[in-house]
Amino acid sequence: MLRLQLNSELADGAREIIRAIEQQGHQAYMVGGCVRDTILDRPIHDIDIATSAAPEQVCEWFERVIPTGLQHGTVTVVTKRGTYEVTTFRREGGYVDNRRPASVEFITDVTEDLRRRDFTMNAMAVDADGMLLDPFDGQVDLQAHRVRTVGHAEERFSEDALRMLRALRFASVLQMRIAKGTWRALVKLRAGLAPVAMERVREELWKLTAGPDPARGWAFVVRSGILAYAKEPLLFLAHPWSARWQSALAVLGQVETPELRFALLALVHGASAEEAQAVCLALRLSGAQQDGILPVLRAHAQLAAAAQAASAAAAAQGAASAGEAALRRAFAQAVLAYGETAVRGALACRQAMLGASEGEQPAAVQQASMQPQAAADLPHECAEPHAACTLLRMGPQWLNAMPVRQLSDLAIKGRDILEASERPAGPWVRANLEHIWIKVAVGALPNERDALMNVVRKGGDTT
């Protein structure tokens, strides 16, 4: 029998709880993800404990206990070493809405408790001495890099449809494959996702997108077709496999944050900021998450429009290339409108999009057994590539050279303009500030109070 070494203060605290329960004549084990991740040599951030003791008993035996889910047998034990969810062994009755058990029966058999869990790699337990209990061969599946349900896959997915998305997420984040029977059941029962709350869908998709190989995860998602059955429309995220998906997956890992990866998916599919916002709202993304996505898309659109205009102007004038001065001004306007972070994100996404090779198929797609498709179909907003390339080449330099990044960085404020004018306050004040800010940003004016106030007093070129 395998003995696992969980060496951390968090694990020490779990062992103390387990031994305290055992002294009362009951069983207790560390279960689930902490066991899986220990075998995979991954960091452990929390430890769950399963026990034969009733939740009311656990509440009596420990000083600080939060009754987080008494009806389901779960309490939270708080110690100096950490916080632990302690759940009574249980058997679940029929499920309602493809998500929640209709009834819960407390039991005393740990194997039966493990039997109700989703995947074999999550159905393992470890006692206080580190001895592994693995009745469903989770360790074998981990060694085979395989996601497999406990028991019949159709039964597991019919009980809780969210498990289908969890299978895709685990396969992606842990870089595993999905067992054939588990995959067939997932595709067969994918319509069962419909009742699942969008918040739970978001949680799985976000973790998958933030993972080390987002292309692999999204390849599984697209191939399964499961998002077409989400409770609310997910628009471009639910599109079937296409050359655009191939292009997206080829470059998805080239941007670092999940926010930029969502933005990149929208851009490659030609989605507008409004369409992306509809998806964000459907997924119940937080304000902070949306702030990391939507301004990037809007900044990208503004820069693309500027590149088009510059290329058109160059063509009308018979010039070989677009003038950098106009592009630099448009770039500064985008920074003022959407912020430095959004503009940097837009440049990163655009660089990734232009870097996709024609006909290239990412390894993640091959590993998910997809068929090769036609050449990449990336949207190119620029009528002529030179202007877009100028933005990509010069944009970071322009940004680094900017003495101001936001309106508050100016050496003068709105009140300074009002004091130098006899006009009443109004929108014209901000318009003047923005006009001066642009000049400072592109290096046409120094960010010095006297110089800026001289411009204000002269009233020249500030309307």
Write a compact overview of the structure shown:
The chain is of the alpha+beta class and 463 residues long. 51% of the residues lie in helices and 9% in strands.
The backbone outline, from C-alpha atoms, is: elongated
What is the helical fraction, as a range of percent?
A: 40-55%
SSE class? alpha+beta
Which spans of ≥5 residues are poorly predicted at pLDDT below 50?
357-384
How many domains make up the 3D coordinates?
3
Strand order of the largest sheet: 3-4-5-2-1-10-11
Q: What is the helix tally? A: 22
Alpha-carbon Rg, integer: 28 Å
Mean pLDDT: 89
DSSP, total strands: 13
The largest β sheet comes out as: 7 strands, mixed
Span from first to last CA?
80 Å
- Please indicate the percent range of residues in DSSP E strands (runs of 2 or more): 5-15%
Structure description:
- With about 475 residues, the chain is α+β, with helices and mostly antiparallel strands.
- It has 22 helices and 13 strands.
- The strands form four sheets. Strands 3-4-5-2-1-10-11 form a seven-stranded mixed β-sheet.
- The longest helix is centred in the middle third of the chain and has 23 residues, at about 295-315.
- Residues about 355-385 have low confidence and may be disordered.
Furnish the topology, listing elements before pairings.
Layout (H helix, E strand, L loop, with lengths): L8 H15 L4 E4 L1 H7 L8 E4 L3 H7 L3 E5 L4 E5 L4 E6 L1 E3 L2 E2 L3 E2 L2 E3 L3 H6 L9 E2 L5 E2 L4 H6 L2 E2 L5 H7 L2 H12 L3 E2 L1 H10 L8 H13 L3 H11 L18 H9 L6 H11 L4 H10 L4 H5 L2 H23 L7 H15 L1 H15 L8 H5 L17 H17 L12 H6 L7 H15 L7 H10 L5
Parallel strand pairs: 2-5, 12-13
Antiparallel strand pairs: 1-2, 1-10, 3-4, 4-5, 6-9, 7-8, 10-11
